[in-house]
Structures are given as structure tokens and as C-alpha cells.
Amino acid sequence: MASAGSSSTGGLPLEILQALSKADPILSSETFAQVPFESIKAALDRLSSRSMVTYQQVEREEAALEPEAETIVSHGSHEARVFDAVHKAMGGLSIQDLEKEIGDKNVAKLGQGKAFKAKWIKKDGDKIVSLVDSVDDVTRDQLRTIQEKRTHEPKVIADLKKRKLLKLQKTFSFKISKGPKFALEIVMEETDLTAEMLASGSWKTATFKPYNFNALGADQHAGALHPLNKVRQEFRQIFFEMGFTEMPTSQFVESGFWNFDALFVPQQHPARDLQDTFYVSDPKKAGRPGPVSPDDGRDYDEYLENVKTVHENGKYGSIGYRYPWSEDESLRLVLRTHTTAVSAAMLFKLASEYRGGSSPPARYFSIDRVFRNESVDATHLCEFHQVEGVIAEFGLTLGGLMDFMEIFFAKMGLKNLKFKPAYNPYTEPSMEIFSYHEGLGKIIEIGNSGMFRPEMLEAMGLPRNLRVYGFGLGLERPTMIKYGISNIRELLGHQVDLNFIEKNPAVRLDKD
Ligand SMILES: N[C@@H](Cc1ccccc1)C(=O)O
């Protein structure tokens, strides 16, 4: 516990006060050259919080000697050494003898040049002789001054720097002055008013430490929204605004039936390959699709039969794929490769509602995780998120889909879309959607879409003249573009840096 009264502390803070009482202001780099920067700063903060000193940080350029300059300070400049050698030798020196005398060919050569120019020496036959009795070694004197003071006249500094004898370094130091409560004693400050102080009456004379309202609180490590969650939230909002209902998407494991067969993807399609799809090894197979709800009296056998027929020989005006369809293959379990598996099951449910008398239109969306067996790089992971929408209505047209896409993406700030014909086994026609991205300065693909095929819809029992739009896009890409993230691994997967998540502007709750 702190004792009451006027006991004082010493150490560096006191030394600073003592130095200030002799000179004001002082420069820490001169007066306390040996003390580490952090220690000085801590002492100054203590003193300035009591208004005993004021200080500011100053940046200075200091000159430091290169190794060659240190040799000059200890042995003299090249020219002075040449002069000394020549002057000492009675009757002058030959060039060879001069080199021998100095012991460094380079110094002898450079020094001669300068000494000739300064008219300290001259040639006399094959000898060099001195012209004066003594010389001022200006360079050495200048370097000595710099060694002590770390500075000199600008012209001298520039000159020596050109001769590569100096280097300039930035240094930080404090300019310290007396504060309004300057004194030569640091009184202990009390932080608490205690029962003892009240009892003894010492509180009357005690000095209390003022509250520091500028102190930062301890880091609270608050929870943070993941950037993907935030963008997902924005998409959900857009869907709700446009009258969509969210589909239940919790199921990552799907039968091949809903992921592929129901979508008229033939069983030998490359997307069903092990290279592209993760298959579950235990259990390997799903049961047959069950009723959507307990009071749904639909005949699943009929639906499976329809799917089999449409794949094998065709139906509803289609000629099919002409291959033997295997129910076993359709029941293999996969990690869903697209959320269109969810849409398919949802449309099947819609078909049973239609039979029960309640009719489309319907608008559904989902945003959830999908899995593909891809090699991982800066923009690809084995798992990512898809945003998917489905609209079922009578009388829909392709132009209407393009129109809808313009409106949907405009809500995310993406305008001037471009549509390119594409292929999906389950939609006809199909279109890839592109947009010009100003930040990237190029056209980028933003989604895939189409009108679901009768082979898919009619097999479910949906009416022939009902049209269904479908569209899908990734969640990661818009998130990466929006928040300037260049590597998808920073966003998702086992390498995510929590620090990045906490610091990213995308995690703030407010809209930015
Ligand atoms: N499933 C498609 C997206 C899509 C959904 C619905 C209709 C058309 C296309 C994909 O993964 O890219």
C-alpha cells in the first residue's frame, strides 16, 4: 500500500529534473545519449502527467563516421600522412619509398593528389619534396568535430558525404522543457483514499494522483462477424426485399439423386466423377427419397420412374440420354456440389403443394456451403458458398430473367450486365452473367443462370406451362472484391487468421 506523505522518488525522472535546472530546454539525445528511448519516454510521461515537464519528440539527422573516416581521425587524412612522410624525410622521397613509408598504396596515391593540389608538396626530379613547414589537417579536424557533435556546417557535411566519409542517420529524441509545476523533488502521489489516511488525518496533506482519462482500456477481444457472414446477410436482405423465402440448407450430405439425377445430369457426366465430387464412404448410400411431409401422399416410385424414363429414353418431348439409368448410382451419398440440389428438392415439394391445390408462383433462395474436389489455390477452395435463387411462375420469359438479374445485381451496385449463352444439363437456355468491374478494370463473371428444363420439372409433376428461373453465384468472390482480399484462404478454411477477421472493416456491424 502506498504510504501517505511526501516521500519522493529518484531515478531517471529526478535526473531529468536536475538536468533541466541547469539548462532549459535540453535534448535527450545529448544529455541522456546512453539511455534507451523507451525508458526516457516512460520517465517523461510520468513527469509530464504531473505538469513538471513538457516535451516533444524531435527528429534529427545525425552524421556518423564511415570506417575510413575513423581511420582518418586516428591516423590523419591521406594528404596529411603523405605530407608528414615527405616532410620527415630529409631531401624528399621517391614514390616507391613514400608507399613503403605509409604502408598503404591506396592512401599514398590519393594523398599525393590532394597534397599536390594544396601545394604542400612538389616534384623535384624523381623525388617528392615538401613545400611548407606544417599543414592544417582540416579533414581530420572536421571529422573529429563530427565524431563528437554528430553534426557540422551543412557544406562540410555535404562535402564529406560526397567523399563517402560520412553517412546520415535519422534519430529521434526529445526536446524537454520545464513544466508549470517544475520542482526538484517528485512527491509520491496517492492513488487511493484509505481508512488509515482518514484516521490519521494524513489525507489533508497527501497529494492525489489525478485520473487519467486518456488511458486506453484493456483490449476486450470482442466477438466479430465474419466478412462472409456479413455479405451473406446483405444478400439475404436483398432476397427478402424481393419477396423470396429462404430454403432450409443445413444438409451438406445429399444423395446423388437430388444433386444430379433430379437435375437431369446423366450418370456418366464428368461432374459426377471422383475428380470433381466428394463421395461419402461410410455410409455409402442414402435410402430412397422419403415423403416431403407426413401427410404427403405422393407416390415416390412414380417420380423415380419418371426420372429413370426421362434419362433413359426421354419423355415430355425429350429424347433422353439413351443409357441404362441406375437407381443404385443415384443413391450414392455426396457432399453437395451446388445448392441447386436444395432447389431441386424444394421444387419437388412445390409440385406436391401444387397437386394439393395450392399453386405457384414461388420465390426461393438459399445461401450455403458447397463442396468440390478442386485443387486449392489463391481463388479456389474445396468448399465455398453459393447464393442461389429460384422463381416459379406461369408465363416467364428469358427476357424477364435478364430483367430480373439487372434489378437483383443493381441492388449490389453491379450494373450494365452482359449475358453469354452457356450450358447446364438442367437449364435451357442457360446464361453466364458478367459485369464490368471498375476496381479491376475488366469484365468478370458474376453468376450462372437459366430456365429449368421440362425433363426436370415435369418429372416432378409440375404443370407443363409453368416456367422456373434459376440462378447461382459464389459468395466469396463478391466478398473478396468488396473488401480487397486477394487470397481466399484468408477468408475460409483452416488457415484463417483470427486477427485478420477481427481487424477487417467487413466485420463491423455498422454499414460501411
Ligand atoms: N448450379 C449452378 C448455378 C445455377 C443455378 C440454377 C440455375 C442455373 C445455374 C452452378 O453451380 O454454377
UniProtKB/TrEMBL annotation:
<dbReference type="InterPro" id="IPR006195">
    <property type="entry name" value="aa-tRNA-synth_II"/>
</dbReference>
<dbReference type="GO" id="GO:0009328">
    <property type="term" value="C:phenylalanine-tRNA ligase complex"/>
</dbReference>
<protein>
    <recommendedName>
        <fullName>Phenylalanine--tRNA ligase alpha subunit</fullName>
        <ecNumber>6.1.1.20</ecNumber>
    </recommendedName>
</protein>
<dbReference type="GO" id="GO:0005524">
    <property type="term" value="F:ATP binding"/>
</dbReference>
<dbReference type="GO" id="GO:0006432">
    <property type="term" value="P:phenylalanyl-tRNA aminoacylation"/>
</dbReference>
<keyword id="KW-0547">Nucleotide-binding</keyword>
<feature type="domain" description="Aminoacyl-transfer RNA synthetases class-II family profile">
    <location>
        <begin position="229"/>
        <end position="505"/>
    </location>
</feature>
<dbReference type="InterPro" id="IPR045864">
    <property type="entry name" value="aa-tRNA-synth_II/BPL/LPL"/>
</dbReference>
<dbReference type="GO" id="GO:0004826">
    <property type="term" value="F:phenylalanine-tRNA ligase activity"/>
</dbReference>
<keyword id="KW-0067">ATP-binding</keyword>
<dbReference type="Pfam" id="PF01409">
    <property type="entry name" value="tRNA-synt_2d"/>
</dbReference>
<keyword id="KW-0460">Magnesium</keyword>
<keyword id="KW-0030">Aminoacyl-tRNA synthetase</keyword>
<dbReference type="InterPro" id="IPR040725">
    <property type="entry name" value="PheRS_DBD3"/>
</dbReference>
<comment type="subunit">
    <text>Tetramer of two alpha and two beta subunits.</text>
</comment>
<dbReference type="GO" id="GO:0005829">
    <property type="term" value="C:cytosol"/>
</dbReference>
<dbReference type="GO" id="GO:0000049">
    <property type="term" value="F:tRNA binding"/>
</dbReference>
<comment type="similarity">
    <text>Belongs to the class-II aminoacyl-tRNA synthetase family. Phe-tRNA synthetase alpha subunit type 2 subfamily.</text>
</comment>
<keyword id="KW-0436">Ligase</keyword>
<dbReference type="Pfam" id="PF18554">
    <property type="entry name" value="PheRS_DBD2"/>
</dbReference>
<keyword id="KW-0479">Metal-binding</keyword>
<dbReference type="InterPro" id="IPR040586">
    <property type="entry name" value="PheRS_DBD2"/>
</dbReference>
<dbReference type="InterPro" id="IPR002319">
    <property type="entry name" value="Phenylalanyl-tRNA_Synthase"/>
</dbReference>
<dbReference type="Pfam" id="PF18553">
    <property type="entry name" value="PheRS_DBD3"/>
</dbReference>
<keyword id="KW-0963">Cytoplasm</keyword>
<dbReference type="InterPro" id="IPR004529">
    <property type="entry name" value="Phe-tRNA-synth_IIc_asu"/>
</dbReference>
<keyword id="KW-0648">Protein biosynthesis</keyword>
<dbReference type="GO" id="GO:0046872">
    <property type="term" value="F:metal ion binding"/>
</dbReference>
